[in-house]
Amino acid sequence: MSAPRVLSGIRPTGAGFQLGNYLGAVKHWAAMQDENECFYFLADLHTVIDLPEPAQLRTRTREATAELLAMGVDPQRSTVFVQSHVREHAELGWILGCLTGFGEASRMTQFKDKGAGSVGLFTYPVLQAADILMYQADAVPIGEDQRQHLELTRDLAQRFNSRYGDTFRLPGQYVAKAGERIKDLQDPTKKMSKSIGGNGTLWVLDEPKVLTKKIKSAVTDLGREVAYDVEGKPGISNLLTILSVATGKAVPELEAAYAGKGYGDFKGDVAEAVVELFAPVRERFTALVADPGYLDEVLLAGAARAREVAVDTMDKVRDRVGLLR
Ligand code: AQP
User: Fold this and answer.
1) Best mutation site among 11, 47, 57, 83 for ligand 1, i.e. most ligand atoms within 8 A of its Cβ?
2) pLDDT mean over 262-278
3) In contact, 17 and 42? CB cutoff 8 Å
4) pTM above 0.90, yes or no
């Protein structure tokens, strides 16, 4: 029996990847490589929504590739590619868009949260559905904030299959635990995000002293008690989540360990854990970006492998829909 297939993507936006991208997504990508056939891509088409400077998009796509490899994605075991190198994504996105209701797309919370935007922002989840269905993925490791988009993907697969015959595999719901949603350090009511940046965002490539400074100045409350999910303590809860995911220790165990100790020691230990987590990533990243030829090879081989699967899916889709060969 062949290994289950896993597919996930990430946008090369912002100044790099942030702690939430790592803990909510990429950490799981790396862990899934042994047991699954994995496809991981840089979602550059999804990034065009923000209309970045062309030179910046090119640089970021390359650096993001190096960051993924530095965080443990292994191109020997996984297919790593750039979304726009597989043109079939855009084509399937169009066809699935024709099966998507206007009201259905309007109900996507991410679209509603960002307020008015371009047609690209509106149809983003449809392209995302195309990304996933193209590879006949069994599981899609994504952060909890993406759950609604995965549900739309499953609905579209079912709709296509019942109209045109069995074509797409329905992807399973592999979603990171709710507790793994990392919040902004300066405003713990918002998720940590590449596009917010500032002192509330911990970049994977931040220098140790920068990480430490940001964590030590994280917004907390006037109390002294290190407790999770208590009214008025979203900042401390977030730091507990970070320490728990970074060290593998359960939150109640950490609460007990810091009883009566105050916030100073606690924040110092969170900082140490994050520095320890990212120091080797920084080192590997520096070596990888010094070898652009190697990154090119990885992306070329990844695109070739991804296209084999994509071409196969699109041949079926074109036939089923009635497009002339
Ligand atoms: N704060 C977070 N906690 C847990 N998981 C998170 N993810 C993002 N932020 C957190 C997960 O990271 C994956 C990649 O996301 P993306 O780059 O495709 O877009 P995003 O979800 O919109 O991530 P950002 O950092 O917030 O980027 P911007 O600011 O550019 O929109 C996803 O699986 C996501 O769940």
Assistant:
1) 11
2) 95
3) no
4) yes
